[in-house]
Automatic annotation (TrEMBL):
<dbReference type="Pfam" id="PF23571">
    <property type="entry name" value="GH3_M"/>
</dbReference>
<dbReference type="GO" id="GO:0005737">
    <property type="term" value="C:cytoplasm"/>
</dbReference>
<dbReference type="GO" id="GO:0016881">
    <property type="term" value="F:acid-amino acid ligase activity"/>
</dbReference>
<feature type="domain" description="GH3 middle">
    <location>
        <begin position="373"/>
        <end position="444"/>
    </location>
</feature>
<comment type="similarity">
    <text>Belongs to the IAA-amido conjugating enzyme family.</text>
</comment>
<dbReference type="InterPro" id="IPR055377">
    <property type="entry name" value="GH3_M"/>
</dbReference>
<dbReference type="InterPro" id="IPR004993">
    <property type="entry name" value="GH3"/>
</dbReference>
<dbReference type="Pfam" id="PF03321">
    <property type="entry name" value="GH3"/>
</dbReference>
<keyword id="KW-0436">Ligase</keyword>
<protein>
    <recommendedName>
        <fullName>GH3 middle domain-containing protein</fullName>
    </recommendedName>
</protein>
Length: 503
């Protein structure tokens, strides 16, 4: 029977007796979480006042009818409409094209994060203000103390002690994509690329087995190969294995299945073969890769048997958890990761998008099906549109007034000038930490399969695949590793067509 995850009340207990679970350096960060979640409405009122005060005079808010002194909620709700990306696109495009006037924000827009536009297939440009990265970095710094606390408590409950967890390394598979410049000369890149190229991330290089050059290599094969070989060479230092999204970690294990022979050969030789040609990557890996016949033979034995159950803990024996987002569309990979990891806890630490950093999972060691995120009220002004209700400015609910069990579409107002912006994510309220609501990600609002009059969202599709897999495949010792589906109208009546991969 699995050990239950520690309750979030453990944070309060740690503050009363921090030495038992976390060091003194983390106490202030845990205390900040307690402060932010104890008076959510007051924090949200302050945040909205700050946003409206600093962006007073911006063209968009002026056109909405807000004057310089209008920083209250009532006036904001009455005058500022609820909008989608298409509504703000003309303003965003002007900034991208080089308009330096205060269009959306009076603080300079320094770059754009590119959203994949999963709801409509288009690439969206999300403005980033000068101080946004610092705000995100500060909140991201809260994750470490929470995770350290919960991991320690989780293993202490099993009679184990995890010394020096923060001194171990992460085998986290991280990748970048090429960046572009807008007509006005501003950088436009994916959020993760901006993180991995930041000074803050480079200062944390020792926390990972992958050298920075390998992470920043835009050739996916060379990047994956270099990160894998470095992870193998440092296998006893690894305390966590992961990727931002579960799909990327599954892809990494599949890469190992296909390339273990060449990896072992390079480890035995102590040198990368010609398949990795990037000079900066070769130089970075040369500082880690040394001739090691014993390790090469270990890799061959571990990978040649065709038994991939528990491969993560067999190759990286000190791994304490798997680090990957497994909510929403990534939920389909939970069983696969459990299979590869031998049942290690799967941790989803935070909830963020290109538009905003939303919150933290305060119970990161919980079962993946129970992941909820506590919204941090200082990151933006949050409102919630009850699912099923007409989109109207008067229907939105404040963060402090959502109801447990209800589903809402999240609407944000950010420091960078997005005002009452529909993100498109549907969340369900699962409970509270202090008075801060906790949300479970349900789905993207507009990600639907539709045929005839039927509409099926990704959560319903996932449940259908799970039921079919349980009834038809698992009795035969087969499980679904991945799947996709589309609407087919070539025959009448229309129907859904799916394809799966199995292990």
């Amino acid at each position: 029977m699995a050990t239950p995850a520690p309750d979030v009340s453990a944070i309060g207990a740690a503050l009363r007796s921090p030495a038992a679970t976390v060091g003194e350096a983390d106490v202030e960060k845990l205390r900040l979480i307690e402060e932010l979640t104890s008076d959510v409405d007051a924090v949200q009122e302050r945040v909205l006042s700050e946003i409206l005060g600093r962006n007073a005079g911006a063209e968009y808010l002026t056109r909405c009818g807000l004057d310089a002194g209008d920083t209250g909620r009532a006036t904001f709700r009455a005058k500022v409409p609820v909008v989608s990306y298409d509504d703000l696109k003309p303003y965003i495009q002007r900034v991208a094209d080089g308009d330096c006037s205060p269009v959306l924000s009076t603080h300079p827009i320094t770059e754009f994060l590119t959203s994949t536009g999963t709801s409509a297939g288009e690439c969206k440009l999300i403005p980033v203000a000068m101080d946004d990265s610092g705000r995100r970095q500060a909140l991201h710094g809260l994750i470490g103390p929470v995770l350290k606390l919960q991991v320690n408590l989780f293993y202490m409950a099993q009679g184990q002690y995890v010394p020096g967890l923060e001194k171990g390394k992460g085998l986290n598979f991280m990748f970048v994509k090429s960046e572009t410049k807008t007509r006005g000369g501003l950088t436009a890149w994916f959020a993760l690329t901006s993180v991995y190229k930041s000074k803050q991330f480079k200062s944390m290089a020792n926390a990972y087995t992958s050298p920075t050059a390998a992470i920043l290599c835009e050739d996916a094969f060379q990047s994956m190969y270099a990160q894998m070989v470095c992870g193998l060479c440092q296998r006893h230092d690894v305390v966590r294995v992961g990727a931002v999204f579960a799909a990327a970690l599954v892809r990494a294990i599949r890469f190992l299945q296909l390339n273990w022979g060449q990896l072992a050969a390079d480890i035995e030789a102590g040198e990368l073969g010609p398949h990795v040609a990037d000079p900066s990557v070769r130089e970075a890996v040369s500082g880690i890769l040394r001739p090691d016949a014993e390790l090469a033979e270990f890799v061959r034995i571990a990978c040649s048997k065709g038994d991939w159950a528990g491969i993560i803990t067999r190759i990286w024996p000190n791994t304490k958890y798997v680090d990957a987002i497994v909510t929403g569309a990534m939920a389909q990979y939970i069983r696969t990761l459990q299979y590869y990891s031998g049942g290690l806890p799967i941790v989803s630490t935070s909830y963020a998008s290109s538009e905003c950093f939303f919150g933290i999972n305060l119970r990161p060691m919980c079962d993946p099906s129970e992941v909820s995120y506590t919204i941090m009220p200082n990151m933006a002004y949050f409102e919630f549109l009850p699912v099923g209700e007409v989109v109207d400015a008067t229907n939105l609910v404040d963060l402090a007034r959502v109801e447990v069990g209800r589903e809402y579409e999240v609407v944000i107002t950010t420091y960078a000038g997005l005002s009452r912006y529909r993100v498109g994510d549907v969340l369900r309220v699962t409970g509270f930490h202090n008075v801060a609501p906790q949300f479970r990600f349900v789905r993207r609002q507009t990600v639907l399969l539709s045929v005839e009059l039927d509409k099926t969202d990704e959560a319903e599709l996932h449940r259908a695949v799970e039921r079919a897999s349980s009834a038809l495949l698992r009795p035969r010792g087969v499980s679904v590793a991945d799947y996709t589906s589309r609407a087919c109208t070539e025959r009448i009546p229309g129907h859904y067509v799916g394809s799966t991969g199995s292990y």
